[in-house]
Amino acid sequence: MSSKRNHTTELGCIACEELSDVGAGKEGWLVDNPSLLCALDTHSIALANRSLILITGWDDGPRLKIRPNLSPIESESITALEWLVFDEIRVIAVGTSCGYLLVYSLDGQLIHKQMVYTRRILKIRVRGTKKDLTQQTSSSEEISIVIPGVIARFDGSDFQNMLQEWLQETNSQFWDEKPTKRDSDALGNTFKRIPYQLWNVNKYGSCADAAITGIMPPPLMEIQSSQRYYCAVTVGEDAVISAYRLSEDRGRSIVGAILSKVVPATFSTIASFSKIIWRNEQKSAKNSEAKPQSFAKASPLTCLKDHPRKGEKLTLSPSGTLAAITDSLGRILLLDTQALVVVRLWKGYRDACCFFMEMLVKRDNAGASSSYYEPSKSDYCLCLAIHAPRKGIIEVWQMRTGPRLLTIQCSKGSKLLQPTYRFGSSADSPYVPLEVFLLNGDSGQLSVLNRSLS
After folding, report:
1. Is the backbone peptide bond immediately before 250 cis, with ω within 30 degrees of 0?
2. Domain boundaries along the sequence of the chain
3. Is the separation of the CB atoms in 326 and 332 below 8 Å?
């Protein structure tokens, strides 16, 4: 217990009567129920079972219950949960078993509803890579949706614009006292569709988890254009790790360019024929619900198969250059997502959970000894926190090849959590390091792993 007190700081307790609605009250409720989802913000935690979302803090603040309008015919349920934080706007994003993405305000209002793909949403990932001041690289903030064999990408700015429009409408309705009609249509047809890209990534089998790791250069012999390419890493039953190059444009390959120049007549005929079919499809589907869009091009890059080993969970470093992958046989693989090679391996960590964090490992400068010194980004070192529930410990390892820095004892029924990425944070604001939190399911105590070894 002494190591726990030395290396974690208690923040508060989330215990309340409402927690019984999501299964609290019996031993192991937080970790033994696969349908229980958790999402952490810097101020609140959201927990969800198949049909209910509970939002609470670790103080005496108000608590909110949200019951999404799910389809009883399709036995629709909540399958993914995440916070979306844009400056002053904080909302909850929900994925369902029927492929819908729902966005709720903190007063329970349905802000947005959109079909992504007609399969179960496994995870909602929120991440961003800020603009480098020393290089002319554009910032990239995104929301990606992981579905078995499919990955979708929304641009963060599109979501921000939608939420700002909603906030303006809400404020104007407040003053005019006009009732809102945003959630009047049960099918979600009244909501403005947010554009997104969709890729099929089941070349090596359906994925259990996936992530878009960042922007990558185009392939050789590819026509140069303003279109961007992304790298996606997937893990699953058939392939422990596989990687894909994702293209925004489906018609940018050299083969497509040759065909469009050599056989223009054929190309024109096919285009005309497609228009005729498209008109017929539009007439027949005029009154039906909108179908998901077609796939963009996804080119396989590499694949690691090691039967019977199965990839289970994936977590990305802040820059997206490293990924920690857990598998079914107790291994944790550290993947370099740019070189697409495994650079480190841990064994004996069954059912493990991993999060990247930043710690004050070295503070050699003169100002570090001052009590008024505010650490900068350069003072922190990237580490990996590994929760091994069967061992009842949390280990912190320095990246990429550094030693184990900490071993922290934790009680059975505890869970590691990490706050969601915050969109649009200013470069002038103080640097906030990546932190990892520990929630004790039995007591409801929430603690944060300390940034310093001292």
Report:
1. no
2. 377-453
3. yes
What three-state secondary structure class fits 53? strand
**Cβ atoms within 10 Å, residue 319:** 15
Predicted confidence (pLDDT) per residue in 70-95, tens digit: 999 999 999 999 999 998 899 999 99
Query: CA angle, corner 320, sides to 319 and 325, nearest 5?
Result: 135
Residue 388 forms beta bridges with which residues? 393
Counting as low any pLDDT under 70, the low residues of the chain are: 1-5, 129-139, 174-189, 221-226, 249-292, 362-373, 425-429, 454
332 DSSP β-pair partners: 326, 346
386 close to 346: Cβ distance less than 8 angstroms: yes
pLDDT, tens digit, 9 for 90 and up, residues 136-161: 344 578 999 999 999 999 999 999 99
What is the spatial distance between Cα 39 and Cα 417, in angstroms, rounded to a whole number?
7
CA 275 to chain centre: 37
Structure tokens at 213: 């790791």
In angstroms, the CA 330 to CA 64 distance is: 38
